[in-house]
Amino acid sequence: MSMRSKGEIWLEANECAARIGLSKRALRLYEEHGLIRPRRTQKGWRLYGADEIARLHEILALKRLGLSLQRITALLQGKAIDLAGILGIQHDLLAEQRERAEQGLALVRAAQAKLATGTSLTADELIRLAKETNMTENNTDTVAWRRYEQARPRTEIKLDPRRFERYIGFYRHPAGQILAVTLEGDRFFLQLTGQPKVELFAESDSNFFLKVVPAQLAFAPAGDGRAESLTLHQGGYEALATRIDEAEAKRQQDELGARVRDRVPHPRSEETLREFLEEQQRGTMSFELLSDELADIVREQQPIVSAELESKGGLQQLTLRRIGEDGVDVYEAQFAKGALQCGIGFGQDGKVHTLWMLPA
């Protein structure tokens, strides 16, 4: 039975469970874990309103991502409901599933058409067909829940600037960028190579967050309290940056400055970019040359990018235009039917960590 109070509908446990597709036992379990707090009538009956139902939606969405109840409790307990955040994650996952399904259907139709002509499928075609039509892969779930956690509202605390001094210094990101962590008065700042300085806000003694983008920093203090590394949480990914001394940071910045000034590209950038563009036109990609994070992004966007590049016709020429302040080599790619501006950047591990395309 539902009840109405001041324009708001309240559901009793039986109706709430039935309408959402849960058992009353599940509602009790979530209440025991402190995830929901239903109202009580004078007779002790539980009533579930909009806030409880929104939190139940969050719980069910995270369960579908494969998270255990213990993990969900640690993630949500004591935090405000973020329905917009979870809907954004669900939208991304459903959109990705739709794209994968459409891509798989296109491959199946192409294979059916080829078989209808009496032509056999090659080993490469069979391998791609098997991989792209496997709808049981779940690689993006971990990224999705991390993205959700990183997008949640944060609560700022006041931190004694003297406690922040152990974090001051330079850290090297896997993509090769330098993260400079500084203290100015009683305010904390972060600056990545080629990017403006942004303020950090304390969430705990060692965890900080940005307000300009949904990203966080977690410092890892060593035995003497001085941080030897930090983890950057952003976009559903985690990147470990290790401390380097000021001399090494200056040497790397000077090298980048010379590259920018003299327009000296990475020795493999033109060859690798050409290979990527030509592969994408064929609907393939050498993912082993990419960082894990970039490989996931390229997989998501591959159908769109491949279609765009195919419409441009054959690649005719790559011309270096500049070296970006962030160390990315920027080329103009001239095709038979148009041009694109492309950026490619390498990390310390030799893999490509940055790859983008824009209209020329």
Automatic annotation (TrEMBL):
The keyword Protease does not apply. SUPFAM superfamilies: Putative DNA-binding domain. It comes from the Bacteria. It holds the Pfam family MerR_1. Residues 17-78 form the HTH merR-type domain. Keywords: DNA-binding. The keyword tRNA-binding does not apply. CDD domains: HTH_MerR-like. SMART domains: HTH_MERR. This is MerR family transcriptional regulator. It comes from Bosea eneae. The lineage of its organism: Bacteria, Pseudomonadati, Pseudomonadota, Alphaproteobacteria, Hyphomicrobiales.
